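## tool: complex_structure
## caller: assistant
## args:
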Amino acid sequence: MKIEMRHGAGGEAMESLIKDKILSRLSWADAEVPLSALDDASVIEDIVFSTDSYTVKPIFFPGGDIGRLAVSGTVNDVSAVGGLPIAISLGMIVEEGLDMEDFERVMESIGKTSKEAGVPVITGDTKVVEKGSAEMMFINTSGIGRRHPLLDENLRIAEKGGKSRGKWLLDSNIRDGDVIIVSGYIADHGVAVLSGREGYGFEGDVKSDVAPLNGMLGKALEVGGVVAVKDPTRGGVSNALNEWSEKSGIGMIIEESRLPIRKEIDAACELLGIDPLDLGNEGKYIMAVVPEMAEDVLDAIRSTPEGRNAKIIGKAVKGSEYVVLQTSVGGKRIVEPPIGDPVPRIC
Amino acid sequence: MKIEMRHGAGGEAMESLIKDKILSRLSWADAEVPLSALDDASVIEDIVFSTDSYTVKPIFFPGGDIGRLAVSGTVNDVSAVGGLPIAISLGMIVEEGLDMEDFERVMESIGKTSKEAGVPVITGDTKVVEKGSAEMMFINTSGIGRRHPLLDENLRIAEKGGKSRGKWLLDSNIRDGDVIIVSGYIADHGVAVLSGREGYGFEGDVKSDVAPLNGMLGKALEVGGVVAVKDPTRGGVSNALNEWSEKSGIGMIIEESRLPIRKEIDAACELLGIDPLDLGNEGKYIMAVVPEMAEDVLDAIRSTPEGRNAKIIGKAVKGSEYVVLQTSVGGKRIVEPPIGDPVPRIC
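## result:
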């Protein structure tokens, strides 16, 4: 048996690779949020810790580049479980022959994004491999954080709803009635990278959403009642909602008419035969909020530049194990996590 | 200008890439041990943080594999500044077509080494890239740690020598008279990887030293008086000593006759025309110790399996800026950091 592309696609094949081949060997230690939780970040001794490798192709794409992606992705993962990011690491694998100008452009972007997020790069490593041994450049960023100072109060407000939640914003926290918010237009990143790669010519219209979201999330935590936050990257919103549903043991109903999708993205997805729910986002969160705080949290998110197009898209419902899409024409369909990735190498 | 192999070789070209192209853009935040210190690990808000990407070729080599290397290297970096490692992250970039058996063998090795070190993998990420886009597998591990509980007492003993040292075991801590210890035979790893790659046939005799050293270092800290610890990987002992010398603003005298080198490694290096001082090690520390504690620290190190061949190899001397090798035949030569890497892709 060989490793295949679908093993890295963020869907079912990856899940079984991780569970059967990796976790069985590595998951031996206790931690507050352990490796086996497969959440956006883990927690040990009150330190939030997360890692991501970035192999996006091409390294420059409409609206962003691998550097902005690497900083944003890890800042967003640390923040998603309720962490306040302190610092990130930067591990680079660079192919011999890369233009120094391109290298510098990526460094510039990393510096700029890290300042925008307020999270410094504190440790790093650079490896160079022979031409043909890697594609231009791969980046790994890991991130560390403390517990967000607003998290206690945020969760206390969630408990007012009569449901006890844990100490962190985990995938398993969602209960019946929780309202699901998406922080803006979906699928922008996936289409932008595909467009940059294949030269489909959507470029003028389509830009990646890649951005750090720690500031936006901070505004939501000020309001309170947020119980789970997730970064719908590989596998898109489909995969993220299914992970929530599975780990929380609850169903979800999503209203298609409420999904924020740009017209041009919808058209591109139509043309390519790709479901926008399966495409990765790099500057969006999905958030689950107790119903009584949902409108206030939505307003807070919409007051930020990253969240101005946020929408309530559905809610968690007991008595089902599925993520169900209520279609615009009145039908229902089950949203499955994608098995392979419709667009590989987007992050 | 293009990125070249020497930019990742751990010598002067890499140093100028890092200083001119990277630090200038990324080094904007204050930290206890900042990015710009270019030490084995950094420290922010009392959390030790380090990262390394591993591109070793081949991924299996005499005495080890990329998994054992990735765990050991990061555990050793976190420990080297005086950290007690808490956890590591695991970011993998796997090439499509890798045998699942090889993948599992690496996972097994990661699990085993992480248990040996007592440091769990707590967060991870797996990316798959198309065949031809990476070589078998690249790994990034980042590590976090707390301040070692023995560090205060260890450094208090160093201060007895009349020299005030900082709070961490930094490259810049070394003062006149400090004794330099190497924890065992040098250059084993570099020759083992080269042998595995090129099929030189040294294989029967030569094995990599790759191992976690946090246990061994703990024994040395129990004795006290250790002021600096460094992992002589890329660029070897030459580069490590020169970094110490430059950052501490002090010269060093190393006695060639005291350098622990296995006969077969010496012969292989002779044959290949490589200076064993320039070759990477992955299971060795160089340590600087106040003179009055040097013999006791040496004994403590020698009581451990990883350190049983440790030796005192020289000392720091003021009035010079150079690392000088006192040769066995009575001459002297300046040990320069290697400009390129005699054996690329050993880590």
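## assistant note: The radius of gyration of chain B is 19 Å. Chain B touches chain A through 80 residues (CB under 8 Å). Handing back to user.
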